[in-house]
Amino acid sequence: MLIDVLTPDKKVYSGQALSVVVPGIQGSFEVLNKHAAIISTLGSGEVVIKETASTKTFRIDGGVVEVLDDKVIVLAETIIEE
Fold first, then answer.
1. Domain total for the chain?
2. How far apart are CA 11 and CA 78, in angstroms?
């Protein structure tokens, strides 16, 4: 599935992945291939993208996630740099 992580300023990540874990307001949840369509608000926490050979992690401070037709768009308010 295709995953895009965006902030109001730029595209932070775009690529194919096996799954993504996002920090929902009620708790973290994982999105896999063929997931049902969903739109959800996000709280502060980690977005963990599992690629075939590696894992990418971004710390966000709120946002929205949209899942539709094997495409996941994470609209993050901010990316917290560590």
1. 1
2. 12
Between 64 and 80, the more confident residue is 64
Nearest to 39 by CA among 63, 21, 17: 63
Predicted confidence (pLDDT) per residue in 4-31, tens digit: 999 999 999 999 999 999 999 999 999 9
Query: What confidence score (pLDDT) does residue 82 get?
Result: 63
Q: What confidence score (pLDDT) does residue 81 get?
A: 75
81 falls within a domain = no
Whether 23 is in a domain gets the answer yes
Tell me the residue range of the domain where 61 lies.
2-76
CATH number for the domain that contains residue 27: 2.60.15.10
pTM equals 0.93
Cα-based torsion angle of the residue sequence 31, 37, 41, 44 in order, rounded to the nearest 10 degrees: 10
